[in-house]
Amino acid sequence: MKLLEQLFDLITVIFAPCAERGVAEEAGLLIALSAKSVVMGKHSSLGPIDPQIMGMPAHALVAEFTNAAEEIRKDPSAIPVWQPILAKYPPTLIGESQKAIVWAEQMAREWLATGMFAGANDSEEKAAAVVSELASHELTLSHDRHIPAEKAKEIGISVEMLESNDDLQEAVLSVHHACIQTLAETPAFKIIENHMGVGFITSVRMAPPTAG
Q1: What ranges in 35-92 are assigned the alpha helix state H?
Q2: 34/158 Cα distance (integer angstroms)
Q3: Alpha-carbon span 37 to 123, nearest angstrom
């Protein structure tokens, strides 16, 4: 995002409304927060700031370890209950989870302050307020928590509604459906293309069919 900020004065992130999957999570969410504004449809959602470690939510790992430590402190007889649960964790997992949480929140605050809230006198305060909502595991509760456009506006995110511009909505949905069809019917799994028709497509290498 730092490179994009150097190249472009205005960055807008669009999340196409999708009934099956229109959620900005993890890296997608951080990219959205670094933009000047986010375009969302009625079916679009943002997710929480919830870094993953070994495919598991870092917040949940820390919470489970903290809960275990507290229960064992209060009642040492709980050790046999928690021992097989904690034994599945590598020695450094909790520490890495804590660092991932701090890093993700710090990145979100910095990108909000230099992107969406750039130029505002209280940019750091606004960034901190948004992060406190999106990064609080007590509030979001789940990695799959959906935050719709209206809620995103309430917590301070700059949101534009896709449905307010018919031409933009038609263009976004056309590109969205073309991408979905391409990803479904071809080996491609990543598509990057600009307005000049220059694209970069990453595909899965397909093994040639074996002779029957």
Answers
A1: 58-74, 79-86
A2: 11
A3: 14
Q: Which of 192, 124, 201, 199 is nearest to 156 (CA)?
A: 124
Q: Are strands 12-15 and 37-40 parallel, antiparallel or unpaired?
A: parallel
Q: Residue 12 belongs to what H/E stretch?
A: strand 12-15
Asked whether 30 and 107 are in contact (CB, 8 A), the reply is yes
Residue 203, classified by CB atoms within 10 Å of its CB into exposed (0-12), middle (13-18) or buried (19+), is exposed
Measure CA 74 to chain center: 37
- The predicted-structure confidence for 29-71, as pLDDT tens digits, reads as follows 888 888 899 999 888 888 888 888 888 888 888 888 899 999 9
Helix-strand-coil split of the chain, %, nearest 5:
50, 15, 35
State the pTM of this model: 0.73
Question: Are 204 and 189 in contact, with CB atoms under 8 Å apart?
Answer: yes
